[in-house]
Amino acid sequence: MKRNHLPLILTLLFVVVFLFAGDARSESINVLQKDLNSNQITTGGAASSSGCTDAAGKIGSSIKSAAESISQSCNQIKSSCSGFFSKLKSFFQDLFSMFKQIIKQFVDAFKGCTGNTTGVSDNNGCNQNTSNNADDGASNSSSNNETSNSNSNDNSNTNGSNQTPPANNDQGAATERPAGEAAGVDTSNAQSLIKALKEKFNITVENGSSQWSLSQLKQTYELLTKLPPSFTANTKMIQRIASTSLGANVGGYVSSGAPRVYLTNHGTSSMTFVLVHEMAHCFHFAQSGVFSKWQSQFWGGRNGYSGSGNQVSSSVSSYGNSNSMEDFAESVRAYYMNGASMKRTHPDRYEFVKQYVMAGVEY
């Protein structure tokens, strides 16, 4: 309910006028008394009129001063309120912005693929934290890299005499056999596959200069479910790269001393072929005793790319005839992909791979 303060204000004004008028009249009387004593008598009405005029002037000044004070107070209150609401608005804007940022980070953290050391994208392009450790320039070190490629009969001198042999000319010639089923794993989800690869095989997949797709992850997982643990345990990481300085047709390579497979864009067209071949390189680098037996049996003790010794018998492919390392990798690849044929044409190599590499598992 609103109250009418007009009567109260009028009363206060009346009291003020009365008090000031009273003071003015008293002053006029004193002046008159002094004039009488000095025989300088003036008209009392004039003195009274002068006193009233002064009183009215004082009242007007007081009212004006009060009005100015009230106006200043109102302005201060208005300014204070304006500043307060401005700060309040700014506070809520900052709070809203921070809340949006938190929500965005939360959504990004659980959108698609996540991980610590992997950086993978599925077919929808979900990205993770990447660690690009694929240095294609490292392949220039002599006899440190093993490679796979396809349909290239003139690549043997691509990178000069100090490079590793470019790759298998027979890659892709054989039909890839079906890989294993991924029981208990959601193969439609990239993160599920990444987690399974790490937990079941202790293999980390990561992005390098190229990214994994969901279909590539699925093919990799299904392949590994068919291979014996004694074989897969020698590979610790598979990194996707766009290409390598070893050549445009190189599907992948491995550096000696590092249980890591580099898989190029070209290699993804024959995933099983390239992965088994390159994982075989990881195996012989890790299992030097087994590889020494291989060299003694099939290469007369020849060591690596340029050691002395003669090839005892032909490899399963022309590329396998390059050296003992490629012979080993190609024989393991053929064992998995064309086991029945290899058993007929290269029984000695077949039995070696079966006993020392694949732990008796046949395909």
UniProtKB/TrEMBL annotation:
GO molecular function: metallopeptidase activity
Region entry Disordered, spans: 121-187
Origin: domain of life: Bacteria
Gene3D superfamilies named in the record: Collagenase (Catalytic Domain) (3.40.390.10)
Stored InterPro entries: MetalloPept_cat_dom_sf
Signal peptide: none
Biased composition, class Low complexity, residue ranges: 131-162
Compositionally biased spans, kind Polar residues: 121-130, 163-172
Name recorded for this polypeptide: DUF4157 domain-containing protein
Species, as recorded: Candidatus Wallbacteria bacterium GWC2_49_35
Lineage: Bacteria, Candidatus Walliibacteriota
